[in-house]
Amino acid sequence: MTVWTRSALHQKGLVRSAEGSDQEPIPFALVERNGRGLCLRAVNGAAQRLGLWRGQSQADARAMAPDLVTVPADPAAETLALQRLALWAERFSPCVALMAEGPAMEGLALDMTGGTHLFGGETAFIAAFEARLAKAGILARVAMADSLGAAWALARFGGMAQIAPVGGAREALADLPVEALRLEPEAVTLLKRFGLQRIGDLYPLPRAGLARRFRGPRAGAMGLKVVERLDQALGFRAEPVVPVRPPPAYRSFQVFAEPITETAGVALYLPDLAKALAEQLQRDGQGARRLTLTGYRVDGATTSIEAGLSAASAQPSHLLRLLKEKGLEALDLGFGIDALMLSAPVAEPYQTQQEGLDGERSATEAAALAGLIDRLQARLGEDAVQTPRPRGSWLPERSEGWDAASGLGFGAFDPVLRPRPILLFHPPERVEAIAELPDSAPARFTWRRVARRVVRAEGPERIAPEWWRLSPASPRAPRTRDYYRIEDETGRRYWLFREGLYGREDQDRTPEWWLHGVFA
Amino acid sequence: MSDPPSFPEGFPVPERGLEEVAAAEPQDLAAALAFALLRVSPEPDKGVPRPGLFVAAKAWLRERGRPFAQGWQMPTLSSGGLIVVAVADERQVIWALEEALKSGAVGGAVAALSAPDFVATRRLAFAAKAGGAAAAILRTTGAEGLSAAWRRWRIGSLASAPQAFDVRAPGPARLRAELTRRRDGLPGVWELEWDDDRRIWRDAKSGPAAAQQARGLRLAAGLARDGLDPFGPSSEGPRQVG
After folding, report:
1. How far is B217 from chain A (nearest CA, A)?
2. Contact B33/A402, CB-based, under 8 Å?
3. Which of B213, B194, B211 is nearest to B202 (CA)?
4. Which of A362, A365, A386 sits opposite B84 (nearest CB)?
C-alpha cells in the first residue's frame, strides 16, 4: 500500500504570517507583482473570512478590506521555510518530498508506507501531525491517500474526510471539485464551462474525447493535462517523488516524551542510538562513511551535526567518539528537541582487516595507502598529492618530476653521489654575490636582504645547459651553471650557482648568481 | 650499513608517536627538516617500509622551498616512497596529517605548521599512535604554547665538520639538537653529524674527532671499500653506494 500524506499549508509566508493572525484576526496577505500588477499571493484566515482570495489584485482586496495588512512576498524565503519544514517532517518518514510544481501547489508529501502503525494508526497519526504543526504555529491540513494526487486533493478540498481508504480514492474524490486535480486555471475554467464541476463528473466521460478536448491552446505542448492529472489522482499513472534528501539507508531513532533542552541530554541518549545504528550496519556488513545526528525541534525546525569517517566503521564507540569530537554543543536545541535521529547517509562495505605476510607490502597496507591518497585527493584536489620521480636531466629542477600520487608505485631514486639540498627553491632566487675571482666561489652574498659571509665553499659542480630545450618563451640560449655548496659564518649551508661563464657565454649579459637550495 | 646507528648517549631513539621539531632560527629550517626526517624514520618493520609523507601549505613551499627528493636522506624513501601534499592552509595541513597517520598507510610524516593548538596536537598524537606512525611537526618559529607532542626539539645549524680532503670545503653537516621538553625523561642537548658513508646521523663529539684522528685509517678503509678510488664520485670523500 502506498499512502501519501499531504499537508497543505494554507499560510504561505510560514515565518511571517506568524505575526498576529491567530490571536488578533487582522486580515493579512503577502503580495507579489505579476502581469496584472500587485496581487495577493497568500492570505490568512481573517482575510479569507472577509472574502479575499489568492490571486486577487491588491487594489480590489483593499477595497473589500481597508485594514488589510500586506507585505511583499519573498518566494525564496518561502521555499526555504518549506524545505526546513520538510527536514523536520523526516521525523515521521524518511522520504519527504517538496511539492512546488506550480503556484498555490506548495506543500509536503510524505511516503508513509507501512509507517503509520508506529504512530498509532492513520487517524492518530494525522491528528498528531496536525497538532505538532499547530504547536509550531503552522496552519496545515494533512490528508492521506493511495496516490499523491488524491492526498493532495483531500488535503485541500477534502473537508472532514482526510483519509481515503486503500483503493478508495475513486469514491473519495468523486464529490470534490475539479480544482482538486491540480489543474491549471484554464483547464478548470474550461471544465466548469462544460458543466463538469466535480471530479466524479469526469469518470464516465470517454478518455479519448477528454484528452482531445484539453489539448490546450498551444499546439504540440503537453496540453492541459486533465487526463494525466486524473490518472495520477486515481493511481493509474505513477508520479515520481523526489525526497528533499535521499533517505538514509541506516538510521536509528529516539523519540522523547519531554523535549530535551540540554546537550547533556543528547549525550545521554547518544550511546543507544550509536549502538542501534551500528547493529543495523553490522547486520549488512556495512560501515558508515558519513554520520548525521539530527535533532527535531519542537518548533518545527531541525538541527544537525555531521561527521565524516575516513574509513568505513560500524563500531558504536568509534561513531560515538567521532560525534563527540565534532561537538554536540553545535546542536542548536532551541526550545528543546523531541526526537533524535542518528543516520548514516553514506555507508560502504566494511572489511575486517587481516595482517599481511612478511616480505611484501601487505594487501591491507596497499589498500590503506590507496584509500589515503583517494581521500587526500578528493578533499585537496588532484594535484595536491604528489610523488617525486627521477627524470633524465642534470638540471636540478628538471631532475625530478612530480606526478600525482597513485599508490601503485613510487619513483626509485638512485643514491645521490653529489651533494643535493634538502629544500629546493623553484624558481631559484636571485642573490647578490661577490667573488674574489670571476670563476671562483663567492666570498659573500646577499640573500633575502641579509648579507652572508662565506666561510667555506665547495665547487664548482658544472651543469651544462640543455641547449636542445630552447623554449620560445625565452629565446635566449640557456647558460652554463656552476653550483657551489657554501657554508656561511653561522653554519648554514646553501646551494648557489652562477649562471653564465665570464667572457665565454652570452657576451652582453654578465653572469648572475642564484640561490637554488638549502642544505641541512 | 651493517653497523647500528651510533646515536649519542642518552639520545632518544626515533620511535612512533608525535614530536615537534622547531628551528632555532628561521634560517635553521633546513637543519630542522633534516632532523625531523631522522625523527620520523624509526627502525623499519619487516617487509617493505611504508612511504613517508610531507605536508605543507603552498605558501610555505613557495617561501621556504619545496622538498628535493634527491637531497632527502630518509631511509624509507628509497623503497617506501615519498608523498608530498601541498595544501591551501594550515587547517588542511593538520587534517591531511591526521588522515595520513590514522590510515596507517604511512610510516613517517612531517608537517610544516607554525602554531598548532593543543587540541590539534593531541588529535595528531592519537592518530600517530593509532596508525603506528612517527610524525613530526616542523615549526619555523620557536616551540611555544601547549602541545601534546611527546618530545619537543630545537634545532640549530652548526658549522660543518672538517672536510677530510679539502679544508676549504664544508664537511659533513652538523646540527645542534636541543630537547627542550620530553615526557619520559630529562631534557638534553646533543650535537649530531651527518655520516655520509653510513647515511645516518651520528654523535658529532665522537664521530668527527675519531674521523680526524683516524683520517688515514678512514682513507684506507675507503680505498678498500671503494675499490681504490679514494675520491669517489665527488670530492667529499668515499661514499658507499647503495
Report:
1. 22
2. no
3. B194
4. A386
Contact B233 A423 (CB under 8 A): no
**CA–CA distance, A335 with B56 (Å, rounded to integer):** 44
Q: What are A265-283's pLDDT values in tens digits?
A: 888 889 999 999 999 998 8
Residues of B in contact with A491 (CB under 8 A): 156-160, 174
Q: How far apart are CA A335 and CA A30, in angstroms?
A: 28
Cβ pair A422:B67 closer than 8 A:
yes
Which position has the grid cell 561527521?
A: A307
Say yes or no for a CB contact (<8 Å) between B81 and A387: yes
Contact residues, chain A, for B159 at CB < 8 Å: 455, 487, 491
Residue A164 and residue A279 share a domain: no
- Taking 80 as the threshold, does the pLDDT of residue A12 lie above it? no
Q: Which residues of A427-466 are buried (b: 16+ CB within 10 A; e: fewer)?
A: ebeebebebeeeeebbeebebeeeebebbbbbbbbebebe
Other CB atoms closer than 10 Å to residue A412's CB: what's the count? 11
Residues in chain B with CB shorter than 8 Å from the CB of A385 are: 83-85
Is A240 part of any domain? no
Return the number of CB contacts < 8 Å for A and B.
195
Phi, psi of A415 (to 5 degrees): -60, 135
Residues in chain B with CB shorter than 8 Å from the CB of A371 are 103, 105
Same domain for A337 and A284?
A: yes
Query: Hey, are the CB atoms on B81 and A417 less than 8 Å from each other?
Result: no
* Nearest-CB residue to B47 (from A360, A376, A400): A360
H/E element holding A322? helix A316-326
DSSP SS3 for A280: helix
3-state secondary structure of A393: coil
Please, what's the largest Cα pairwise distance for chain A?
Answer: 110
Question: Would you call B82 and A379 a contact, using CB atoms and an 8 Å cutoff?
Answer: no
Distance from CA of B186 to the nearest CA of A (A): 26
Domain shared by A168 and A287, yes or no: no
Encode pLDDT of B100-151 as tens digits. Answer: 998 888 888 999 998 788 888 999 999 999 988 899 999 887 667 778 888 8
- Which structural domain, as residue segments, surrounds residue A372? 353-417
Are residues A493 and B235, on separate chains, in Cβ contact within 8 Å? no
C-alpha A141/C-alpha A156 separation (Å) is: 7
DSSP assignment string, A196-229: --BHHHHTTS-HHHHHHHTS-SSTTS-TT-HHHH
- Measure the CA–CA gap between B176 and B110, rounded to whole angstroms: 19
**Numbers of helices and strands, H then E, in chain A:** 14, 19
Same domain, A132 and A172: yes
A289 shares its domain with A265: yes
Work out the burial of residue A510: count CB atoms within 10 Å of its CB; fewer than 13 is exposed, 13-18 middle, 19 or more buried: exposed
CA-closest candidate to residue A520, choices B166, B11, B100, B176: B176
Task: Classify residue A273: in a domain, yes or no.
Answer: yes
Domains of chain B, with CATH numbers?
Answer: 14-149 (3.40.50.300), 159-242 (no CATH)
Nearest to residue B174, comparing CAs of A421, A418, A492, A488? Answer: A492
Residue A9 belongs to some domain of the structure: yes
A490/B157 CB distance under 8 A: yes
- For B183-219, how does the pLDDT look when each residue is reduced to its tens digit (9 = 90+)? 777 888 999 888 877 777 888 877 554 455 444 444 4
- Say what the ipTM of the complex is: 0.83
Kindly state whether residues A38 and A176 are assigned to the same domain.
Answer: yes
Q: Which residue of B has its CA nearest to A458?
A: B169
**DSSP assignment string, A354-390:** -PPPTTS--HHHHHHHHHHHHHHHHHH-GGGEEEEEE
Is A376 within 8 Å of B99 when comparing Cβ atoms?
Answer: yes
Q: For residue range A146-179, what is the model confidence (pLDDT) as tens digits? A: 888 888 888 888 777 678 888 888 888 888 888 8
